[in-house]
Each structure stands twice: as C-alpha cells, then as structure tokens.
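quick q for whoever's on today - can somebody do inverse folding on this one?? i tried earlier but teh output was garbage lol. tokens:
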C-alpha cells in the first residue's frame, strides 16, 4: 500500500479488494527486502510512473522460480521498460509506459502476472509465453482480469474455456 500511495495512486480499500482511481503517477522508492514477492507488481507500477523509481532488496530475488531481478530486467526491457540493476537496487525508468511485445514468464507465476498487469495499458498487445505459470499460485488470475474488464485472449488449454 505504501508504494501505491507514494506513487500518487489513490487506493480505496473495499471488502472485495482494492480499487485504485486513475491518477498521474510519479516515481517512488520502496525497500522490498522483507517482501521480495512485491518486486514484479512494483515494476509494473513503476513502468507507468513519471521519473525513476527505485526498489531496494534485489539480492533476495536470485533464488526464486527464476532469477527475478534479471528476468524482470530482460522481459520488461522487451516491452520498452528500462531497468538497471545496481548494488541491491532495481532502478526503473518510467513514464513511457509499455510499448507491447513478446515476453516469456520463464514459468515464473509472478512474472506472468506482472507482465499481464503491465500489458493492460500497453500501446500494443503483450504476448506472454508460458502464461500458464499463474496456475501455481492464482489459477483464476486471468478470469479475474476478464471480470475486471481487461481485454485479453487466453491461448493455453487450462483456461481456454473462457
């Protein structure tokens, strides 16, 4: 919640979840050392923030499903988001949004979800290879995005019933 507020987003807690009003987003700093699973969604947020956002704690990311620091840098780079890894910090150059393109989750559920969320306002489509990785932690993720009004096409068999 702290990063959302720092970015200028206006989160509103509701019983069914968090609603975020549209806002002009600005760069933020956040120490994710004790919550490394927040890196992927924070990178998605930072992509749309004006300026340079800094997230600390990348040393905790090396031994996840993928080396998440490198994966985030490489995959978000493919869709136009510049990320620098320096010391224990991830530096995201935001404000240009997401241009769209082909990314690979590397079968990491959090990367698949972060790329999906970043793609919601992309200039063109974001295609995610190994998108089914979300099944590990949030099998209904894409169904929930559809319910929230997202425009997406699901090509993998597990949820192709939509």
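ok took a stab at it. sequence:
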């Amino acid at each position: 919640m702290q990063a959302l507020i720092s970015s200028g987003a206006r989160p509103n807690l509701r019983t069914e979840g968090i609603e975020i009003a549209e806002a002009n987003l600005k760069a933020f700093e956040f120490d994710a050392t004790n919550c490394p699973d927040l890196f992927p969604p924070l990178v998605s947020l930072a992509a749309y923030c004006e300026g340079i956002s800094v997230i600390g704690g990348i040393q905790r990311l090396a031994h996840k499903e993928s080396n998440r620091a490198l994966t985030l840098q490489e995959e978000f780079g493919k869709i136009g988001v510049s990320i620098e890894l320096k010391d224990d910090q991830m530096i995201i150059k935001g404000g240009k949004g997401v241009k769209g393109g082909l990314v690979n989750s590397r079968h990491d559920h959090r990367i698949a979800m972060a790329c999906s969320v970043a793609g919601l306002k992309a200039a063109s489509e974001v295609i995610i290879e190994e998108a089914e990785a979300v099944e590990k932690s949030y099998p209904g993720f894409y169904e929930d995005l559809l319910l929230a009004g997202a425009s997406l096409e699901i090509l993998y068999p597990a949820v192709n019933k939509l």
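fwiw The CA atoms of residues 56 and 89 lie 4 Å apart. also The chain has a mean pLDDT of 90. so keep that in mind when u check it
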